[in-house]
Amino acid sequence: MGFKRYVEIGRVALINYGKDYGKLVVIVDVVDQNRALVDAPDMVRSQLNFKRLTLTDIKIDINRAPRKKTLIEAMEKADVKGKWENSSWGRKLIVQKKRASLNDFDRFKVMLAKIKRGGLVRQELAKLKKESA
Amino acid sequence: FPFPLTYIARLLRIHISERKREEEAESNQNSFAAMAPRKTPVVSRNPQLIRGVGKYSRSKMYHKRGLWAIKAKNGGVFPKHDPKPKAAATPVKPSKFYPADDIKMPLPNKRKAKPTKLRASITPGTVLILLAGRFKGKRVVFLKQLTSGLLLVTGPFKVNGVPLRRVNQAYVIGTSTKVDISGTNVDKFDDKYFAKAAEKKNKKGEGEFFEADKERRRASCHKTRRMTRRLSMQHCLNRLRQCQI
């Protein structure tokens, strides 16, 4: 019991509201009770309300308000991108994005793939049933 | 001496209109000669300072246009050309009948209908989704736009049972998927191909005879259609198979 993800300098967070929705961002400084200074390699450093952030498990090792270059180096060292894309949360988001950007033809291909997969599953199930029967 | 600007402007305007009239008269004179049509467009040698006011004066323009050279070539006078002999007017016979009342003639309408503007997303080879009609929901390959504005479209028939068909652009969604149909020849198909076979006026043939005639016609129609369809569809199919999943 208790909180596991804390707001601290170096905490990686996901923006969940606003223009930069869906971006991974590092908390670089705390402004006051409600706001943090936030930075990402492809973004101008800006302040965000905590309400617009969702904290992740990832934390990187930086000092308070580092330079952009230092920040990017620290992010590379901690492999934020890799950790994120391998986490189940990150993977889910990637799949969501892919689904949203599907073509009509892509959806057709997905349908065929699903049917194929379903067929294979059912084959295996039938085999197992036969064995147990 | 200080004349108001408007007065000067008015003088200049008269000046220029006079000059224009002279130029027109001269051009009319010259047109009577057998001149070759101009290859370069007519460009004024007198740039406008303001609308209606040219940069060069009358005498300057005379020199610029080379009217002195034309005169010199023609011995000090402007060349004069005799007017072309007018073709003898055919004698018009006075009409025998004049209607008593004036008939109201409708105003002439020379408008020509253009085929509907094709959406930018629809190019030959685009896969379309049909939204209405017998084949609604089917994905179909777009071949070309006919002169009536309708889209010529095919399943192809072997793939999903949609034959060569015409479809209105409004009842179609264009997808971003394109099939390469560069080889298929669709020149043969146009709106006339889809016109109903004209029913022969058969006074004698009533009942059975009439039906038999129609059937025969329909069958021959089908054969030719099938052949043409096959040739173009084969090509289309090959392309589709190439880009299969």
UniProtKB/TrEMBL annotation, chain A:
GO CC annotations on file: cytosolic large ribosomal subunit
Keyword Ribonucleoprotein: yes
Domain Large ribosomal subunit protein eL14: 45-117
Protein name: Large ribosomal subunit protein eL14 domain-containing protein
Keywords: Ribonucleoprotein, Ribosomal protein
Gene3D superfamilies according to UniProt: 2.30.30.30, 6.10.250.2270
Top-rank taxon, per record: Eukaryota
From TrEMBL, chain B:
UniProt keyword Ribonucleoprotein, yes or no: yes
CDD domains per record: KOW_RPL6
GO cellular component: cytosolic large ribosomal subunit
Keyword Ribosomal protein on entry: yes
Superkingdom of origin organism: Eukaryota
Keywords: Ribonucleoprotein, Ribosomal protein
A Gene Ontology BP annotation from the UniProt entry: cytoplasmic translation
A Pfam family that the UniProt record links to this protein: Ribosomal_L6e
UniProt-listed InterPro entries: 60S_ribosomal_eL6 (IPR000915), Rib_uL2_dom2 (IPR014722), Ribosomal_eL6_KOW (IPR041997), Ribosomal_uL6_N (IPR005568), Translation_prot_SH3-like_sf (IPR008991)
Domain Large ribosomal subunit protein uL6 N-terminal: 39-94
Any one GO MF annotation of this record: RNA binding
Family classification: Belongs to the eukaryotic ribosomal protein eL6 family.
Identification of the protein by name: Large ribosomal subunit protein uL6 N-terminal domain-containing protein
Organism per entry: Linum tenue
Organism lineage: Eukaryota, Viridiplantae, Streptophyta, Embryophyta, Tracheophyta
